[in-house]
Amino acid sequence: MEGIAKKEIIKQLQEKILVLEGFKKAVSARNDLDFGLRAMEDAFPCRVFPTGVIHEFISPTAASATASNGFIAGLLSTLMKKEKPCLWVSSKRSLYPPALELFGIAPHQIIFVDVTGDKEALWVMEQSLNCRVLSAVVAELGDVSFAESQRLQLVVERSGVTGFIHRKRPRRVTPLACVSRWRIRHAMSYTPDNLPGVGHPVWEVHLEKIRNGKPGKWHWGWWGGQFVHLCPDKLSQSISPKRERYA
Length: 247
Known about the structure:
The protein is an alpha/beta fold. The chain has a domain at 50-186: Rossmann fold (3-Layer(aba) Sandwich), CATH 3.40.50.300. 27% of the residues lie in helices and 23% in strands. It has helices at residues 2-20, 62-79, 118-129, 146-159, 241-244; strands spanning 54-59, 86-90, 110-114, 136-141, 162-168, 180-186, 202-210, 216-223, 226-230. The chain has a nine-stranded mixed beta sheet with strand order 3-2-4-5-1-6-7-8-9, with helices on both faces. β8 and β9 (226-230) form a beta hairpin. α3 runs parallel beside α4. It is globular and about 50 Å long.
């Protein structure tokens, strides 16, 4: 019993530290939202995908930017389940709105804001993150300073809105105040039973950093309205989606 009491005390202290570091929703979100990322839950603080924080995505090429947009859309499909809209900011809109339906998102649920440059995109993002009626805010831009990212992180710690900074072809990759940094790449598409034709999308997901978590690399697909984990050595084999869903 004494050992159990110590573990509970340590758990409570860890949760208090997470709150002080900006993870105010880490504990409350434990059973609130299921992103279907169970195969990588050990990488996240409290074993849940962090919400109410700022996530950074790095895309050095147009192909990786498309892959990142797809993966972000998969995350948004869960964040938007409470019927709250999302705001998407960009200076060169590359997202095809009807494609969002693949992820269960109706195009009219996304508010698209077109801006002229990074500074304006950051300003719109900061103002929007203060709006608690939004489920999330996504901003496509190039370069961001640490001070600018810190301002955004402080805003979401008050509002609880989740933010995604998608840096497309940045000139420099410098440390930011974001909770995580991701790099997403396309992988070979998956077709059940090796059938011919266009397969389901598959991403190579590299979590480069995660505050109070464990970075790593995984392969995720999307079909049946959810993320599906794929082991690298099985990507070229015939896989039953039901059997490998949480492999």
